Amino acid sequence: MNKGELFKKIPKVDELLENSIIIEQMEAYPRVTILEAIRKELDKLREIIKQADSEFEKIDTYIASLPNKIAYEIVKANESHLKRVINATGTIVHTNLGRSLLAESAVKKVAEVAQGYSNLEYNLEAGKRGSRYSHVEELLGKITGAESAIVVNNNASAVMLILSTLSKNKEAIVSRGELVEIGGSFRVPAVMEQSGAKLVDVGTTNKTHPEDYIEAINEETGVLLKVHTSNYRIMGFTESVGLDELVKIGREHNVPVVEDIGSGVLIDLSKYGLEHEPTVQESIEAGIEILSFSGDKLLGGPQAGIIVGKKEYIDKMKKNPLTRAIRIDKFTIAALEETLKLYLDEEVAINSIPTIKMATMGIQKLEEKSNELFKLITELDIAAKIEIVDQVSQIGGGAMPMSELPTKAIEIRPENMNVALLEKRLRNYKNPIITRVYKNTLLLDVRTISESEYKIVVEALGTVFKKESSYE
Ligand SMILES: *Cc1c(COP(=O)(O)O)cnc(C)c1O
Fold it and tell me: What is the pTM of this model?
């Protein structure tokens, strides 16, 4: 056989469209997808023939299997781009993997509101137009102790709205030690600039004193801003001005104090063996005027930026045209209301909000979970050394950066495959599994894998170990 013969063997598009395997696909998928897959596979084939200078028989076999290859391509092309994945990294609020999972009641509510009409902006009692913010305002007040609340797209936009409303063309005084960058695209100075506030940084990187704020206050001052330095800590010779003190300075000079607290913790998690993270309630009790936080970090709800505080300021924000541009949608409101309702009983919150549940999961439970997964994986009889090991999980999302939560992980040391290939195959599995590679072993942290996902993990391992391990 020679190249010329191979080129002649390339089937025409019309021929392929009459192949039984392809006809079967036509019942399930749009014609454009099918034509695209055919063209893509034919291009690939032409390229293979062009490049080849031996082993023409192999290419002949390849041509024979073309309809199957096209069918596979069609199925792949039709897969959703956004997929559910299994998080085996142990990082709970994993920004790349969608941060918080919703509680069951929140998921149900979102589906309900998605399928039917709702009173999103309709006051059922009065029979006239209502406010979308009304659905969560009262609950937020009850839980945090704040006078009033508004919820926007995310915490970055919340900070922007606060500054744009209270400090546009005015000076916002912030400690130099708090001019932080949080996860790539949120930089405090940049957000301040966008909002139209004039940044005035006081103090030094490691130390800021009360006088630093006091000396900077003048008639141009809009707010005193405090930013929780979520994802980093300065250790050693440091000093910052506490909330109580800052609130006192603000009152004395008639300047509102606003805080970006980041993670939005509503329960004192130190009771459950975690590092103390400042709670929203503590800031409200300290008398802070306005406070903002994320809905999908440690709060464990949907992506949102929650602003709570004094009514006179929140009312101004509601009138700011920016609010319309960053407003939340009905799905967020549905999920947030249900999540917040769970907080009315702390025990319920701990047990039913996935983020909090995973963060407070005790070592005994983790041991049970790891034993169960270990048993299932060893039953597979794969070519690997498998062990249960002590490891550490992280909260993630910029919360509690210094906390290392003791956890249990399944450690897999493949015998005939390098660990990077194993990691890649699991990541590219039809239900992607995101794992951690550590010192030539693959780790599955059971903290962030739910028991209902075990079956998929085991199936995936069985499949990827069965594949030939030569090249990919
Ligand atoms: C995470 C974080 C933000 C950004 O919040 P998003 O909800 O992601 O917009 C802003 N400030 C602080 C202190 C944070 O930790």
Answer: 0.91
